[in-house]
Amino acid sequence: MRIVVILLALALMIAPKSAVADTWTRMVAIQLRLSQGDYYAGQADGKFGPETQRAFSGFAADHGIKPIVEDIYGKLIEAALPARRDLTEGEMAAAVEAVKEQLLDPYTADVVVEFGYPGNRDVVVACGRVNAKNRYGGYVGFQWFTVTIMQLTNTVLALPPTLNDDLAFDLCQLGTYPGATVR
Question: Residue 86: helix, strand or coil by DSSP?
Fold first, then answer.
C-alpha cells in the first residue's frame, strides 16, 4: 500500500509537467483561432473557463462535432489547410533572417521554412523548423517557429519569431498567430 502511494505521488510529480505545457499551448492556439471566427471573445490564456466552454459548444454545434479539444483541434486544422501557401523568396529570406537574429550561433543553424498562410491585409505568417546550437555547442533538434511578415510597399519586414516549439507548432497547424484579426 505504501509503495503504491509513493509511486502514485512520483507519477503525479513527473508526468503532468509536459502534459500541462502541451495542453496550455494547444488551448492558447485554439482560443486564438476561435476568436478569429467570432466564437471566443476572451483573452487567449490557455485556461478552459466559461468563455472557452461557450466557444467550444458554439463551434461544435455549428460543425457537428463533440465540444472536446481533440475534435475542435482537428476541425480547425482541417479548416486551415486550404489557406496554406508557398512563400515568396523575399518572404522566406525575411523569415530565415528573423529566426537567425534570435539565435546564439546563427551561422551554423539549419532553418527550414515549411509553409505560410495569410494574415490580415499585407501580413503573411511563415511556419518552419530550426535546428540550432545551445549554450554548450550541441544541436537541440528541430523546433517549430512562426514569423509574422509584413509587406510594406517594396520592403518585407519580419517581426521577431515565436520560438516556443509547442506553441509555434499549434499556431502553424491552426493557421493563426497572436494578434490575428482575420474573420
Answer: coil
